[in-house]
Amino acid sequence: MIMNKEKNDSKTNNEDVIWFDPLETNAIRVRGFAWFDNDRRYRRLPASSDSLVARVSPNVARLSGDAAGGQIHFRTDSDTVEIAAELAAPSLMSHMTIASQGGFDCYVGSDFSDLKFYATTTFPVDAKSYRYRFFAGVPGDKLVVLNFPLYNRVESVRVGVKPGAILRDPGDFPQPGRIVVYGTSITQGACASRPGLCYTNILSRRLGIEFINLGFSGSAFGEPEIAELVSEVSGARMFVLDYEANAGTNGRLYRTLEDFIKIIRGRYPNAPIVVVSRIKYLFDELNPGTLGKMRRELREFQKNVVSALREKGDDAVYFVDGSGFFPDDYHEFTVDSVHPNDIGFYRIAEGLEKEIRKILKI
């Protein structure tokens, strides 16, 4: 527990808010970055791999700096909570909101099962830094969860609370371990309207477990070097491989999927591995003899790889048909006939939640 009359990283400002840096405050926990305890940075791959990843995939090296899936957790009795953040770049992507690209959103509850969405940061579109008050006049002890931006690098972040308020360690997630998701721009969060609606963040709240989001927009090709890094995440309870949308059209899925699973098995002999095929795309329906045929073949390939591994004795590998996540009006669930909107992300989370609960018995 920290009474914020103790040393903090800035003086009280004109609005009587005291600022705390998660890098320096034990009562504030940072989750969702698998190597955070070692590297003390808001990045999704380890510092020790920087040169390797830059060589294997410059795009993954760049995107690993995006803070997708990161979370800040703390308990406080402050009736006011603010945030101050510095970003690497303005949030200028045209098909996503600036709030999802470079903003944080805020959930509050009495405990993890009671979390409710409160607010999302707002700031000028060209801003590289901002300050935002999530709420004021909310009394009582509370758990606060802040979700990091999905498509920008966070250089620094501070949490502001009232002078004299208490910061307390939020405790662990209700469920032990981590679920590691390797995937594409959809996994990274394109195009949720705010960070908490990325499907990995939805699932983290609904299942009460830490998710490690290793979605790399347009760059999930299943390279063995990246697979090794994915397998190195400590405390993994499950792995989800959702990268058909990138590796399917260029043939890399055929060449990498089985080896990717075997690399994970080398470090996690018994952890469930879930292979998820791609969600429905309108263009598959419009071109059934070309794109539609290719997607059917890719789906069958993934299903067959899983079946073959299970026949060889690996009964902890599973196939989930992602095309079944959306109902018949699936075309309403995206922003561009490819990337999900908030309804689409909710449906993906709903579909995966059923499978994860069944497999992990939670």
The radius of gyration computed from the alpha-carbon positions, rounded to a whole number of angstroms, is 20 Å
Strand content: 15-25%
Total number of helices: 12
Rough outline: globular
Q: In sequence order, what are the helices and strands, one letter per element? A: EEEHHHEEHEEEEEEEHHEHEHHEHHEH
Q: In which range does the helix fraction lie? A: 25-40%
Overall strand count:
16
N-to-C span = 31 Å
Report low-confidence residues grouped into runs of 5 or more.
4-14
What is the typical, i.e. mean, pLDDT?
A: 95
Main sheet attributes: strand count, strand direction, barrel closure: 7 strands, antiparallel
Structural class: alpha+beta
Describe this structure in words.
The protein is α+β, with helices and mostly antiparallel strands and 362 residues long. 30% of the residues lie in helices and 23% in strands. The strands form three sheets. Strands 1, 3, 4, 6, 7, 9 and 11 form a seven-stranded antiparallel β-sheet that branches. A hairpin with a 6-residue loop joins strand 6 and strand 7 (116-120). Helix 7 (224-231) runs parallel beside helix 9. It is globular, with a radius of gyration of 20 Å. Residues 4-14 have low confidence and may be disordered.
